[in-house]
């Protein structure tokens, strides 16, 4: 099994989910006492979040590239970034390393197309919902039309991620807010919903949702394990 390198810590709450999922998928595939061979480099989220708010994506790209290089030097055969938002700078990571980089949108796009979905709702941080680095990739690579919440909905979804979920604070009232946002997306024609922030999986489970759920965290982790076992090249 190849070594999976994970850039984590954004937030560490979601990185713990990645670690569990990587090992569960490896055990499911290989059985017995097997688990995933992995390295995780955990960054300090405080300066990352500050640079996000400041819009300093160049600095963020340098930070992510440095982390990826450290993982490659440590023996990683594949690098993955355990956050949706920071894929805003994925090109900086790809350019910094010689091993493959597994983009988080690709396993989700492939799963959506396999399910016959053409129009999908997206929940995530403001950066993911409002910028084009994520929705554009889904459109260009997978022909998907992506719907995002209205301004008020985006504000609620973003606030709950940063003020609650990043701190491990899971509130029933916030779940109800997300369910309302998802219902509105369904009324606008969404056939499914992407949980496009790795912390959202702490709050919304498939049984909580009126639409089929495509959880980027779970799909990303599974794709990494499949690659590590089968040594297929991920899409760049």
Automatic annotation (TrEMBL):
<dbReference type="Pfam" id="PF01177">
    <property type="entry name" value="Asp_Glu_race"/>
</dbReference>
<keyword id="KW-0413">Isomerase</keyword>
<dbReference type="InterPro" id="IPR001920">
    <property type="entry name" value="Asp/Glu_race"/>
</dbReference>
<dbReference type="InterPro" id="IPR015942">
    <property type="entry name" value="Asp/Glu/hydantoin_racemase"/>
</dbReference>
<comment type="similarity">
    <text>Belongs to the aspartate/glutamate racemases family.</text>
</comment>
<dbReference type="GO" id="GO:0047689">
    <property type="term" value="F:aspartate racemase activity"/>
</dbReference>
<protein>
    <submittedName>
        <fullName>L-aspartate/glutamate-specific racemase</fullName>
        <ecNumber>5.1.1.13</ecNumber>
    </submittedName>
</protein>
<dbReference type="InterPro" id="IPR004380">
    <property type="entry name" value="Asp_race"/>
</dbReference>
